[in-house]
Known about the structure:
The structure holds two protein chains of two kinds.
Chain A: H1 3-30, H2 36-40, H3 47-56, H4 63-76, H5 91-126, H6 131-145, H7 148-162, H8 181-219, H9 222-229, H10 234-256, H11 258-272, H12 277-286, H13 290-318
Chain B: H1 11-32, H2 34-51, H3 53-57, H4 89-125, H5 127-142, H6 145-160, E1 165-166, E2 169-170, H7 171-183, H8 186-200, H9 203-210, H10 215-254, H11 262-271, H12 274-277, H13 280-308
Antiparallel strand pairs in B: 1-2
Helix pairs in contact in B: 2-4, 2-13, 4-5, 4-7, 4-8, 4-10, 4-13, 5-8, 6-7, 6-10, 7-10, 8-10, 9-10, 10-11, 10-13, 11-13
Amino acid sequence: MNASYVGRRLFQALLTIAFIVVLNFILFRLMPGSPERILTRNPNISASVKTELRERWGLDKPVIPDQFVAYLGATAQGDFGLSYQYRGREVGEVLGSRIWPTVILFGLGEAIAIVVGMGLGAYAGWRRGGPVDYLGNGLSLVLYATPYFVLGMFLLLVFASTLGWFPTNGMLSAGARYDSFVDQLLDFGHHLVLPLATVSLGLIGLYSILMRSAIIETLAEDYVQTARAKGLRDGHILRAHALPNAMLPAVTIVAIQLGYVIAGAITAEVVFNWPGIGTLTVDALSTRDYPVLQGVFLLLAVSIVVANLLADLLYGLLDPRVRT
Amino acid sequence: MTAGSVPVGDLRGARLRLRLRGAREFGARFVQRRDGLVGGLILLAFGLLALAPGLFVGPLESVVSATGERFDSPSGEHILGTDRAGRDLLNLTVHGTRVSMLIGLLATLVTVFIGALIGIVSGFIGGKVDTVLMRLSDFFLVLPTFVLALILAPILLDIFGSQAELLGMRVTLLVIVIVIGVTSWASTARIIRSQTLSLRERAFVDRARVVGAGPGWIMRRHILPNVVNLIVANTVLTFAGAVLTETTLSFIGLGDPFQPSWGQLLNQAQSDGAAGLGAWWVLAPPGIAIILVVLAFTLVGSALDDLLNPKLRGRR
């Protein structure tokens, strides 16, 4: 991978982040009476804090350049202002306390879905028209058409409220005291099962459909024909020739879909009242807690851009053809 | 074209006949694809419900005009049961069809219009215009609709006020249409642009230019008709995405409680704790309706894609 490829991708990612930051600033000023209203309407802050905020954000000075510069400086330091609903706590702090439940739920779900979904898709594409393909593809299409929260509500209905196998909400039992860390971990795991099943099932549909078509496309390539003509065994062709090449588009797809997955994870969290970024977002929406919403927007947008950058770089590493 | 030998006066008629024959052949091929046909029939059924919901279940029940008891399970009187306010679920779901489909349709039209306009202009004009427009589309491609909508929708709702009406539609619904349209045109623009790039180099475009046609005329009369196929296939898939996005946005509380879409119904079910209470009949009707419609759009979309993209034909 040469330096100019890396440099160009890096530049593109930085440009996009700059775009996001500027957009956030513009939207902030678009609202009626804002940003004055946004910053100072907060019922949980005192008059002295208000004066401090006015100075901090340069609200008595013109929008360009003073307010813009103040905004850029604050954003660069991770300062998004104060939350309304959390009694004037800093947005960065609120986000920090909610990020781990989401990372765990989402990271595990993504890992399970990549292994199971891509495995299923690869096998279905390999044995095209067979029973696994027929069933698996049909199921994947239905899963793909199902919004995460609908899936989550059905799972909750069946496995939590009807069968009673799993708790209906939260991350840990309310008011529980644990004798040991292991007990706490077990309780956490018990709460995790249904949200995790929701996120991974939703993703499995998507990944298996995409992997199936990637494999089918790869199998039509000349080098697979050549391998067949050389008399190589089926399994060997799949593992050594078809899979590695079909994995290439898969890497990009995982990154591109990240945004949609985040949307899904947000709604899945709401169904199970999982205390992550998703429930935080929905609470912030209903109370119009704009500082928190902006923090969430920047956090999600920048993570997506970074994930795309990583995927691009990984792709360059895997596929010599795009390194130019 | 075979119309070359026909007298000028008959040209229009001949062209029409050719089109009709093409449409018939296309219809016959489409019907042969069983998955596309099934999807089409499902959409037809929901389309009828959306056109005249009152005809099937009477006027929309509100909290005031509710006809049943609270959380009644399905019975002869209420085939799909009732929700927390005693409203009939069948009534709500059928009326929800209209809201969901209408928002989906309008959002799709906005998306495809912006996408086609930017794609054709960007591809045909080229140069700096192309660079700027494609950078812009990069931005929207990377950032998913939902993440942008998360910040755009509440701001627009606050600017317009959630009670206002515009063109006979509640502003809450229009905001969702605008948000989806403004944030999801990029992939359409990309597809149309690449096709335009190849069309621009064809001989018929050069000939049009030689006889004095301006860029606007060429784009409208020569490029546009040649990308219509792509636009149609893209529209169907965009529609599925729009319905899903609308549902998700309504579910997280950006919908309109007075014009309930399926997502809004599920939002209410969620805040009433229907899943926890075991009230499956409150979740199932809107939930299954969403799954069916999105599935049907996906089936029709991929069938159309196969038929309209000669390159893909016969690959499955």
